Amino acid sequence: MKKRLLPLVLLPLLLLSGMLSSQALVDMALYNNPTGSNTLEVRLRPTETVVNGAYSAGVVTVRFPVAMGGSLSVVSSTYGYSFAPPVGNEGGYYYYRLQFTAGIPYVVNWTSGQEYVAIVLQYSGGPANSGFELITGDSYTNANNGNFYQELDLGERQGVFYFPPCSDPDIPTVQASPTTICNGESSMLSITAGDLNDATGWQWYTGACGGTSAGTGTSINVSPTMTTTYYVRGEGGCVTPGDCAEVTVTVDPRPTGILSGGETICEGGPTVEHPLTGTGSWSGTLSNGTPFSGSTSPISVTVSPASTTIYTISTLLDANCTAIPADLSGSATVTVEADPVVSISGAADVCEGGTVMLTANVSGGTGSTTYQWKRDGNNVGTDSPTYTTDNTLVPGAYSYTVEITQASGCAAISPAVNADVVANSLVPPGINPTPASGTMVCVGDVVSATFTPGSGGTGAITETYEYSVDGGGAWNPYTPGDPITATVPMVGVNMIQIRTQRTATGIGCNSSAYNTVEWSVDNVPPTVITKDITIYLNSSGTASITPGDVDDGSTDNCTIAGMSVSPNTFNCDDVNTTGGSWNAVGGAGFPPTSEGVNIQIAPDGTPYLAYNQPSGSISVLRWDGSSWTPVGGTGIALGSISSYRSLAIAPDGTLYVAFRDNANGFKATVISWDGSSWNAVGGAGISLGIVDGLTMAIAQDGTLYVAYRDNPYGGKATVMTDGSSWSPLGGPGISAGSL
Residues 22-34: pLDDT tens digits? Predict the structure, then answer.
């Protein structure tokens, strides 16, 4: 190993003395040997060869700066020594006086120019690389430590302080392992070839050769944060710093990631996002193990937590490096709400033309809500929580749903509800009357009815049943099957009625018409048929009769409840030897002139007459109890022929007159009295052609019948009846031959 020499400050002092046998001078130098150690060597070098010379004395002073600290001690000496402790710190130095041989000569055989170690010193403050020097000639040294002095062969032979020879270090060969690292990693820089020579060590720099120190030694471990070039050269000792070798460590930045995003969602679907630095492509995992990768930043990751989760970045790699925890920041909280639930209320069936409002009821989920209504799977309506059904729908079954979507991504669809459209035609219940509707019943008879259900409508269906016993004036609830007994106050046409109706509360529904059955309570007076009898007074001059005595087959539509006769007692005053007498009603011979008289008794017992006047018109008279009065004036039907007219009175007391109407082609015409005027029934001229022998009758239910000789049909009989219009009963000309 080459030795590293310390630079010395030489202050030579030339002393003149007498001539000695040897003329060699002794030069002196101070070495740090081995290089970089904490030992110093004081070496002697003769200027000539000395054979069996007597080296009897050597004196020199060593100093170093007080600021270095430490102290010197003797390790060994070739020629003996004495060692004075440091003297003061004059000028900021410690001074040590060395003396060799101590007056006892040493025989030496020295070769000219060869170095010989005189003493080895040890420094306690660390490597003795620099700062130490041999000194002489200054006042302090002269006064305190003695000057440089060498005695050989009894003569002063001090030479000079010389500098040891110095070899500059090689420019080394260096390498970095690895040459490319990630930020935060390290690379080992090593010298693979090159010698320090007399330099004390390898010095590493950054920035430039001789720039910022990066370390010392044959290898160093570096962790640059950016691509850095390192420089190294041998330094220390006697060498003059020179050129450096260099090596570059390329630093790739570690990737960084900042996680962001998160929201309140329903189950599944949101994304979290993290912008990245570094060199793509990237890959890594989230805190829950969800992997991600991508070649562009930021990367969005879809997560589907089942419950509220806070996500962070767990690992991150780019094309070159792996992130450390400090490179990863941010978090994303995904709050998971339960899926929303939606149902529809307000559904109901409607009648044709009606509408119903459906309402969407939403619970759960989060964020604003949009609505899509569907009818039978097809979109209808607008974005609204309510929907009103279409009033133009035809009858049928209709199913409705609503789909909702929330700003959070939550969605749901409701169960289907039905809002059917039914035909708006309500049919009332059917009636099963006992006896049949239209039957004439008698006082004491019983009527009743049962029902069959109606149809149609929706909503709450109600079928009502009512009865009236005053011809429909007042109505009372009726229980199906209950009997109604006819009483005297009910006498009249269609006085007992039972009706039913079907109603529905469904939207747009109407009530049905009434279905009605009715019965008339007999109001036609009995037909009284009497016979003449002859009775004889008893011995007391009196006699009596019973109704049965004079009844000759009286009849009634109903059972005759009873009969009476008046007068029923007689005495001598009543004796009529001629067989009885007639009394004039209203006087004899009225009206003054008349032809073809008809008489009828009204249900209330009032007599009515119809007759032809000489002018051909018809007049009707009423007996008011004291006189005959015209009904509707005189001459109520001009142009009639006297023998062809017929008077009839209906069960309700209405007067009817049928006659051959000369003014209308001699056809049959029927007129009725409404209480204030006579009016044609069914229009004038109800027959097909000319009629003769005309007569009229009225049934208990008020139906009109007119019979006549029908000339257009060969003079055969025709009967006309009036329902809502006149029509031949059984067809025209019903008799076998001409009348």
Answer: 578 888 988 887 7
Please identify which residue in the block is written with the tokens 């018109």.
617
Which residues face 93 on adjacent strands?
65
Task: Give the Cα separation of 394 and 375 in Å (integer).
Answer: 14
Task: Output the six-digit token pair for 181.
Answer: 């690292």
Share of the chain above pLDDT 90, in %: 28
Residue 455's Cβ-count burial label (10 Å; 0-12, 13-18, 19+) is middle
- The span from the first CA to the last CA of the chain, in angstroms, equals 178
Element (H, E) at 139: helix 139-140
What pLDDT is recorded for position 18?
33
Q: How far apart are CA 68 and CA 599, in angstroms?
A: 173
Q: What is the per-residue pLDDT for 131?
A: 83
State how far the alpha carbon of 59 is from the alpha carbons of 75, 93, 145, in Å.
18, 19, 9
State the Cα–Cα distance between residues 78 and 133, nearest whole angstrom: 20
- Exposed e or buried b for every residue in 100-137, given b needs 16+ CB within 10 A? bbeeebeebebeeeebeebbbbbbeeeebbbebbbbbe
pLDDT level of residue 737 (50, 70, 90 thresholds): confident
Q: State yes or no: cis peptide before 65, omega within 30 of 0.
A: no
Q: Residue 410, class by beta-carbon neighbours within 10 Å (0-12 exposed, 13-18 middle, 19+ buried)?
A: buried
Pairing label, strands 542-544, 569-571? antiparallel
Burial 516-554 (b: 16+ CB within 10 A, else e): bbbbbbbbbeeebeeeeeeeeeeeeeebeeebeebeeee
Average pLDDT over residues 307-317: 87
The runs of H, that is alpha helices, within 408-472 are: none
3-state secondary structure of 508: coil
What SS3 state is found at 66? Answer: helix
Specify the pTM: 0.39
CA nearest to 709, candidates 735, 671, 731, 676: 735
Q: Where are the alpha helices (DSSP H) in 512-553?
A: 547-550
Q: Are strands 421-422 and 350-351 parallel, antiparallel or unpaired?
A: parallel
Q: Are 611 and 596 in contact (CB under 8 A)?
A: yes
Cα–Cα dist 169/210, whole Å: 15
- DSSP letter for 268, please: S
Report whether pLDDT(263) > 90.
no
User: For the residues 393-418, what does the mean pLDDT come to?
Assistant: 88
> What are residue 480's phi and psi, to 5 degrees?
-50, 135
Q: How far apart are CA 34 and CA 737, in angstroms?
A: 177
Q: Determine contact, residues 291/266, Cβ cutoff 8 Å.
A: no
Residue 44: which pLDDT band, with cuts at 50, 70 and 90?
A: very high
Exposure of 637 by Cβ count < 10 A (0-12 exposed, 13-18 middle, 19+ buried)? buried
Which pLDDT does position 563 carry in this prediction? 85
CA distance 651 to 177: 136
Least confident of 172-176, 238-242, 289-293, 687-691: 238-242
- Rounded CA gap, 490 and 496, in Å? 7
- What gap in Å lies between CA 2 and CA 196, rounded to an integer? 9
Average pLDDT over every residue of 284-305: 85
SS3 326: helix
Read off the pLDDT of residues 321-349 as tens digits, 9 standing for 90 and up: 888 888 888 888 888 777 789 999 988 88
Closest C-alpha to 189, from 154, 221, 159: 221
| Mean per-residue pLDDT over the chain, rounded | 83
DSSP output for 351-367: ETT---EEEEEEES--S
Q: Greater confidence, 293 or 104?
A: 293
